[in-house]
């Protein structure tokens, strides 16, 4: 599989964990709401990339068994994972972005400051679960 990075739509209870992207020069979608994840290192598998990036960005250790969905969009692979709501206490924000927040997934899907194709992928995931 050819890919450059991986993202995780990470649910804590019924809410979605999102990160506010920074304004680093050259970054796509500066200031938009993003999912945990990022660029591939070396010959990482998509799952390994998603797990590493989630640990680096929000301090949450996920097991590969939690990753579901696995959908490739362009050069990125998207996963979903679900944790109990009380795991929010374990979040330790890293050094990328302006912060994190939890929000209902329907709110993310409707927001103008959410990355547009991420909104569409989230909606597709949610519709597939119904």
From TrEMBL:
Residues 1-125 form the Nudix hydrolase domain. The keyword Hydrolase applies. Pfam families: NUDIX. InterPro entries: NUDIX_hydrolase-like_dom_sf (IPR015797), NUDIX_hydrolase_CS (IPR020084), NUDIX_hydrolase_dom (IPR000086). Its cofactor is Mg(2+). Keywords: Hydrolase. GO terms for molecular function: hydrolase activity. PANTHER family: ADP-RIBOSE PYROPHOSPHATASE, DIHYDRONEOPTERIN TRIPHOSPHATE DIPHOSPHATASE. This is 8-oxo-dGTP diphosphatase. It comes from Salipiger thiooxidans.
């Amino acid at each position: 599989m050819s890919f450059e990075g991986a993202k995780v739509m990470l649910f804590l209870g019924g809410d979605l964990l999102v990160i506010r992207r920074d304004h680093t020069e050259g970054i796509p979608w500066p200031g938009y709401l993003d999912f945990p994840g990022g660029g591939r290192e070396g010959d990482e598998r998509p799952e390994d990339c998603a797990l590493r990036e989630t640990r680096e960005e929000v301090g949450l250790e996920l097991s590969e068994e939690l990753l579901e969905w696995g959908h490739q969009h362009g050069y990125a692979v998207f996963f979903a994972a679900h944790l109990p709501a009380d795991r929010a206490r374990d979040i330790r924000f890293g050094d990328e972005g302006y912060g994190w927040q939890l929000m209902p997934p329907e709110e993310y899907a409707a927001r103008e400051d959410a990355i547009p194709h991420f909104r569409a992928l989230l909606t597709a995931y949610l519709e597939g679960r119904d």
